[in-house]
Amino acid sequence: MHISLLSIFVFLLFSLRVVACEDECPPSICKAVLGNYSDPVKHATHQIARDIERRGLVARSNSLQRQLASSYLNCSYTTLYDNMFPGFFHGKCQDPTTGIDPPGCPDPDCPVVCGTPGSICHFYSQFRQIAFNATVVCLAQAVKEVAKRHHSNTATEPRTSPSGRSIIFAKDDASVPHRRSEAASGWSDVEEQIPVRLMAICGGSSLSYCDPETAMRAYILSFN
Fold this sequence. Notes:
Elements: H1 2-54, H2 64-84, H3 117-122, H4 124-151, E1 159-160, E2 166-168, H5 176-192, H6 194-201, H7 213-221
């Protein structure tokens, strides 16, 4: 009886550990990624805010970067989580026919896309790209929200670009339709520059400034 109870205890302990990892791993990993991107995003929102002002799309404002940062934060966790788990990494690693884990699964190097630390480490390049893409999506969403917030002003309040050319006129100005189109094109250009801008901040295609790979791999594998 003593051996039987001990076996049951060990089984339950192992089961709870697996469940805890499934519950805690995804949000913990996402938070770590967001932490890695926190400084790069600060640099990105600063550059984007200056670009918006340079284009004369919004009057100079100390709050513009804060608006961008706030919109980004509202988007970042959910977007990253959904695209990472279960968007890419999810499910069991076992062969559906045999129910057996392939070699290296679940840890440390699992060549099957599934929801384990070993799978994330094997497909780390995809993991890195998902994190980058999610950050781009949320920065673009932040630009869209700022543009929408200021859109009602584009035909009512004069704005002058650093070149001295006003791109936003009063309602009764005959060139308002053209200026609206020009402003829309400007906002679109700002969005299109986000991937290039962020990649440069992250250190180029390796994204090494935004993704400390060695440390992240070790952290991911601590959930096993």
